[in-house]
Amino acid sequence: MLKRILSSGKARAAIKRLSEEPSARNYLALGQLHATAGKLGEVERVCLEGLEAYPDNAELKRLLARARQLRREDRTRELQAQLKVSPRPALWKELCEIHLESGRVARAEEVADEWFFATEDGEAMLMRAMARCDRFFADRRRDDGRRAHELIHEAIELLPGDKRPLRLLLDLTSRAGAWQNARSAIARLLELSPGDPALEARFRTVMALAERCGDFDQALRAVERSGRLADEDPEAERRATSGSVRPMLQELAAQDGVRGAFYVRGGTALVQGPRGATAERTARGVREVIQASRTAARRLGLGQPEEIRAEGDFGSLLARPGSTGASALWTQDGPTNKQTAKLDELTATAQSNLEEQS
Amino acid sequence: MKDVLDPLTRIPGVRLALLISEDGVPIASAKGDPGRSAEEADRAETAEELEAFCGLAAGWYGELHRAVDPLAWNRPKRISMRCARGTLVMQDCERVILTVLLHRGVVIDELRLPLGSAIARLERNRRRGQTEQRGRETEHTNDGPPGLFPGVSRNHTESGTDVRTQNEVPETSGER
Q: Is the pLDDT of residue B44 over 70?
């Protein structure tokens, strides 16, 4: 009670400060006060208002994402409790959707399996397929792709005349680069909605691509080998990185015990520390370490790598792979917490620069 | 090998501890905390999957070595990879790789000391094994076929003095 009174007093003061000076810092302060009071809806509202004025503010974005995540977790608990008392499709469906939104693909699949075994419903099968597709898009494993394909076909059989499983099939096959399968999916969709101009345009594009591609299994193999889906533009990865990455690399390389700082994206590498041929050779080595680790993580079923570390007589190499590029730090005695945080910042900056460019 | 792996599996968050040969053959394994969700539980359950896991993990170690080899860096002593669905830590110990699979969220540095202890235990076991083997080899050298006089030691007579031939050089001069 006392806490609530105190926090409401602080919130009033924060609202007053915000009205006097509507800065991102004040929006953040108010959002954090609401978060402390457990008012997640208010946090979300304040963050959205702040992001309208300051759309690039990373802190506000983070707070909003955290508030949404907490709300989803609350709802998940409620749904799980309700499912124990009276299990019904609407609850299973909502729970699956929440898990998928939160990126908890395996949990979503578990719930969808439970739903399907209880009801043998086509909707449940579709949810299983969606979960497995998400898993394939995240991990890029051939087995996941194949299983998703099977589940979608089962969903199509259970839901005749429904466009959703066909749309999912189209999504899976086009992202995997299996254009022949994508073409047949569009043809089936056109049977359901004849004359749809978007579908017809897509059909024409896919027709041209289907002539020079292999079957679904070959496409899956290519995705697993390269780690890249067909809709990911390799040119975007090769584009020169923004200038703001270089000063951060220079700052890192100037610190005590740091032998080299790297940022690698596609075929481009920014190196600070080693010079000349050594720089080139080291960057190549770092890139290979990251690529080998990405492939190994996928094959081992561990998902996307977030941190790779190698230690030995040479010192310590720490790499932080992002969704497009990766930053790495070679130190004498292992990186300090400050250096690790800086490396994270570098990866995030490069990522946001790329998003802005695109 | 169990005494090396079992203490590791008792650490919270350790899902699997393995000893793998350099070429990816599993030597010993011990299961730890089974995990709470399907995504954690569906890995390396059967023996075949365990073998595949070991092969892939050792392959990754080898690839990392090959990647840093042109930089004149020695083979990494310890490699780790934190991923979306778990963490893999591998530490080299003279042609054997100690491998630990952790649940998501476990801090890798917390495992540094237990892994060091496990490596020390492994090295101690290996030294003990080598000493025992050497002892057995020494025994084997004395277990040759019996000579002309069974029951008589090959190198020594019953009285313990050397059997000498007529033409050998005496150890001391004959002039006393």
A: no
Using pLDDT thresholds of 50, 70 and 90, give the confidence band for residue A157: very high
Question: What distance in Å separates residue A273's CA from the closest CA in chain B?
Answer: 14
* Residue A248 confidence (pLDDT): 84
- Chain B residues lying within 8 Å of A302, measured CB to CB: 81, 83-88
Residue B158, in any domain of the structure? no
How far is A37 from B8, CA to CA, in rounded Å?
A: 41
Query: Is there a domain that residue B142 lies in?
Result: no
pLDDT tops 90 at residue B99: yes
Q: What is the pLDDT at residue B158?
A: 45
- Please give the Cα distance from B19 to B27 (Å, whole number): 5
> Which residues in chain A touch residue B85, judged by CB atoms under 8 angstroms apart?
106, 301-303
Q: How far is B7 from chain A (nearest CA, A)?
A: 23
Reported ipTM: the value is 0.72
Q: Is residue A166 within 8 Å of A192, Cβ to Cβ? A: yes
> Whole-number mean pLDDT of chain B?
78
Q: Is there a domain that residue B170 lies in?
A: no
Per-residue DSSP letters for B113-169?
HHHHHHHHHHHHHHHHHHHHHHHHHHHHHH-----SSTTS-SSS-TTSPPP--TTSP
Same domain, A209 and A242: no
Alpha-carbon gap, residue B74 to B69, rounded angstroms: 7
pLDDT tens digit sequence for B151-165: 555 555 444 444 455
Any domain includes A132: yes
Any A CB within 8 A of B43 CB? yes
Q: Would you say residue A83 lies in a domain?
A: no
Q: Is the pLDDT of residue A171 over 50?
A: yes
- Whether A187 maps to a domain, the answer reads yes
The tokens of B59 are what? 């392959």
User: For chain B, how many structural domains are there in total?
Assistant: 1
Whether residue A138 lies inside any domain: the answer is yes
Number of domains present in the structure of chain A: 3
Q: What's the pLDDT score for residue B160?
A: 46
CA A54, CA B49: separation in Å to the nearest integer? 50
Pairwise CB contact (< 8 Å): A310 & B85 = no
Facing residue for A110 by CB, picked from B38, B76, B80: B38
